[in-house]
């Protein structure tokens, strides 16, 4: 016998009869053969007759899969369907990749030997019509017999729930085995992209991944934000016009741009994914990817997946005038419970409605430069549909990109979103923000006049009563006195049932009432975020510059100017708040130092005061230079979650918080932002953020709030601080802090 070769990569494609497995397998093999040797095996060649499903699967395991998995060619006995007996011997070579398709390809016993497994699904009536069209009238008398065998097998072997990749039939009959929309070519593109994320195939499929990711980036000026007639686009209307119908959409909104002293973020970014594009979610160590009608479930930790999915590229220089670091890429959120991968304990979130992370891949986006008053259209070449149809805005129900060009679509949407105004862009927002804010101590919460707060106002309940929270503050101080922590960032959660809640309308109200440099609106299916975060977690520019800007120290704003100034001064001179802030600065200096050039970590701003619509905040800035060759994903992971949301030391304090808080934080205390194609990163801390999950009558809201506890904290003051932090969101909704 010849010496065994290195074992091939084995890909199994399973599914019920007529689902389109064969067509998908043939097309997939044709694509894979462009870069390597490929063998294809069909299980229908080995089943011993119409009653032979179970026996055929066993033959496949013994005579085909067993030798292939050890690097040997497979020699197996065919079945002569016309004669009803065994036929001649055949050989399937152990090529670099072997694709195996047929009912039972991913059966129990096979899955442990296969490197990747796929299930192709289809509606029963569509499957039957395809199968009979393929095999003719000879199949008609045996369809029910074969279907019954499939059902008995699947009743004891849950293959569809056990595979890596699922290819779903599309509405209207187009499926992996059809030639129309959503046909085999589209399915192969989807499958190849998803398989490229599979750890067993990631390296082997590098040529296919390169073909999918090497499309040229186009950045085009789409037009000025303000027209010659003095009209400016309403940003919310622009987002709705371009991405309102997308299943996944992100608006990273520098909503305080144009206000006095607002210099931290001059860019807003809008991007979406209509459903055909690539998106991911992660929960409890499992990363799920979706692309069109296909999905993959991979047992990959989030940061390990990100390190392979996001590899910084060298891109051509941007056109003159485009100064935003974002060059398309991944956008979304990283929830706090990803701490399980960065030194924290594993909080079970399997039963929660919100994934631990959610990202979309944007192959087209809009960037608004508020400083220069320009809108930019970004797209990867080759994202246009090939039907020749002119593009239409989202409000028409059509996709956003067509042969006319994405820049033209954006220009037209800008014109649609412009509204007459007597003031320069930003002036109205500036007036609203600089007007004396209402006090959170007021007996009745105030609400903005436009857009109106949701009606009826949500009625929130708190995870911790007033007494419970005070007890947890005291317990935190006990841990500090025991030497287990210096500072404990204790949080709690408010929740409300809110049938029919309109997150987009609520966000419009929030951004008007609480403008912030890192505000955001995210929609990921049945999960939405409306954030007015003022805090940057971490940014990394393309050249490796790192910046963290933690916030620690808060005072409410007052409607009385003299009192408001006194509150700001009180925060500025507070030894307790300065101590809290400096402890987090030291923690972040340590976090950044792990991947920074020696000597590059500096504090460029310490305990500065920034004023927002409802609060004054104490902010510091820590800068560093990424060490050459250091992993950007590992640098993010080393700093995650934000030290301002844990306390110090981080690892031991997170363990204390797990014991005190009584439940997972979810998205709150995590990060949101982007991972750009050129390696740039900009992430904010998820605070002042309303999270909505579910849909329609089942919509549920959550709002996390918290504060830093130190040895000299006054428990009642800590409780009032969380009320102050919650006030900006609650008052905008017309809601009150629950007692």
How would you characterize the overall build of this protein?
This protein has 18 helices and 33 strands. By secondary structure, it is α+β, with helices and mostly antiparallel strands. The strands form 4 sheets. The chain has a 17-stranded mixed β-sheet that branches. Strands 8, 10, 11, 17, 18, 20, 21, 22, 23, 29, 32 and 33 form a 12-stranded antiparallel β-sheet that branches.
> How many helical stretches?
18
Low-pLDDT residue intervals, each spanning 5 or more residues: 170-182, 385-403, 421-451
Helix content: 25-40%
- Please give the largest β-sheet: 17 strands, mixed
The outline comes out as elongated
Total number of strands: 33
Q: By helix and strand content, what is the structural category?
A: alpha+beta
Name the assembly state.
single chain
What's the gyration radius in Å?
29 Å
What's the pLDDT, averaged over the residues?
88
Proportion of β residues?
A: 25-35%
- Termini separation comes to 79 Å
Please provide a brief summary of the model:
The chain has 739 residues and is α+β, with helices and mostly antiparallel strands.
